[in-house]
Amino acid sequence: MLKLPGLIDPHVHLREPGATHKEDYDSGTSAALAGGFTIVLAMPNTKPPIFDSATLDLALNAAKQKARCDFGQYIGAGPYNADIAASLAGTAAGLKMYLDSTFGELRLDDMTLWMPHFQKYSKDYPLVAHSESRTMAAAILFAAIYDRPVHIAHISLKEEVLLIKAAKEKGIKVTCEVCPHHLFLSKDDIPSISHGHPGRGEVRPRLAMKEDVAALWENMDVIDCFATDHAPHTIEEKDSDNPPPGFPGLETALPLLLTAVGDGRLTIDDIMMKSYTNPQKIFNLPEQPETWVEVDENEAYEIKASEQFTRCGWTPFEGWKVKGRVRKVVLRGQTAFEDGKVLAKAGYGRNVRER
Ligand code: NCD
Ligand code: ZN
Question: Percentages helix, strand, coil for the chain, rounded to the nearest 5?
Fold first, then answer.
């Protein structure tokens, strides 16, 4: 039996408010516990988007009643809310800036709209950028100019990891995360994920070339965090004529990473650093006392959507053979998950920003 700390996922979409048929704070935090996560940070591209005090309260009130593991809720950077967002820095998980195309309404194209956010948001709390390729280069330049940390969400390209490496060598305060799906899948896998429904392969950032995937593995030391970007959309939505981008990931991340450990491609220490130590530091998160995860390292099994807690009903990893099963999660002294059952009650989860 392997014992891990409660893992942290700094990037999930729990769809509350507004799209609880895909997921909500209850089903999403149940999926988190089943995946070995005891803290999840939820993104603000909901309906309505989380961009001020009233909408933040909407999400936090739902979380307070429903969450089964600990949580934080991001606020989104909009064109006119830099002062309000900055004033909520102690309450929100962090500021999320959508600088490239995404699912939902939050998007900042003009760089003059980025400036007040970089200036005003507290340097003690994370500013997370969805920025791909050259937009990412611009976000890193902003971090240098405003001398503040920026965390780049879900990197997927060779050029991205190499530029982040170079920026770190210059002392720029940039950190980054990578998602399991960008480590274990490339464009070439789209047909096998799709089962005849091309929408199932849609995700942002898109699955990349094999060379990009190889570059992420080769530069594993540049990557600060693993993050799932758990982005549940129902199977009906994925298979429709207008499929939204996104993959669920909370329940498959740890088994995939542990399988890579078994294959000699990662170490347990990589998982500890990138799913616990680094996110705790980068996102300024509290210790969770008496909290741990017990994993049966040797149990081999097949990933099945039908056994998941997420409401979306599918996974791009259906049928994958993995090794390493979460047996038990203890959260703040209470058994929160054991042998396939979520035992933590709805409402047991705490806001990581409430001290
Ligand atoms: C995300 C979603 O569905 O909310 N989709 C995705 O493909 N990652 C949006 C996002 O994070 O950009
Ligand atoms: Zn996302």
Answer: 35, 20, 45
